[in-house]
Amino acid sequence: MANTNVTMRIDETLKAQLQELMSNLGLDMTTFFTMAAKQAVREQALPFKPDMNEAPNIETLKAMAETEYLINHPEVRKTYDDVDKMMEDILG
């Protein structure tokens, strides 16, 4: 099957971020876009689920990771039997 060129416009910062991500994943942008196109054609749908929700920011992602860690490592969790002691630790 012969290849053809596709020209597209994309924000410069987004392009750089995508190139870095693809490089970290061992891919280039051509491979990524080819994979996305093949999946879209195969499934007759977008290769992602569009929604109106904003993606979590870095602070939220860190909090989510910390929560997951604490769930999976109960030995490092701090628990309280006294609300006043908990509030003292929280507020200093």
TrEMBL record:
Keyword field: Toxin-antitoxin system
Classification via Pfam families: RelB
GO biological process: DNA-templated transcription; regulation of DNA-templated transcription; single-species biofilm formation
GO MF annotations, alphabetized: cis-regulatory region sequence-specific DNA binding; toxic substance binding
Membership in a protein family: Belongs to the RelB/DinJ antitoxin family.
UniProt name for this protein: Type II toxin-antitoxin system RelB/DinJ family antitoxin
Source organism of the structure: Roseburia inulinivorans
